[in-house]
Amino acid sequence: MSIKQYLPGSPPGETYIIFGYTPLCGTCKVAERMVDVLAELTKLHVIKQDVNYVPALVQDYQVMSVPVLFVVKADEVAATVFKFESVTNLYEIVNKALTE
What we know:
Organism: Macrococcus equipercicus
Number of strands: 4
Low-confidence stretches: none
Pfam families: Thioredoxin (PF00085)
Strand order of the largest sheet: 2-1-3-4
Radius of gyration: 12 Å
Order of helices and strands: EHEHEEH
Helix content: 25-40%
Domain Thioredoxin: 17-88
CATH architecture: 3-Layer(aba) Sandwich
Protein name: Thioredoxin family protein
InterPro entries: Thioredoxin-like_sf, Thioredoxin_domain
Number of helices: 3
Distance between the termini: 18 Å
């Protein structure tokens, strides 16, 4: 299933990151800073999406908590991250997903 159907403005066929959050989530604010650093390191485009506005994505991809990070490669989700331990950990997950 292509994630593009949920986010029609996403770049076609590219590799990018989707960061899912909710406005009242304090942990999401910290994770967003980590994602900003990750974007600088990887030079990947980041789409920041309030998951309250995409309930179908939340249901179909079984998002049980926020923040959430999707690594998208060729319009398919290559990795999903719910546990934001560190920028280094995120960097390793993204690199692994992109090289497989």
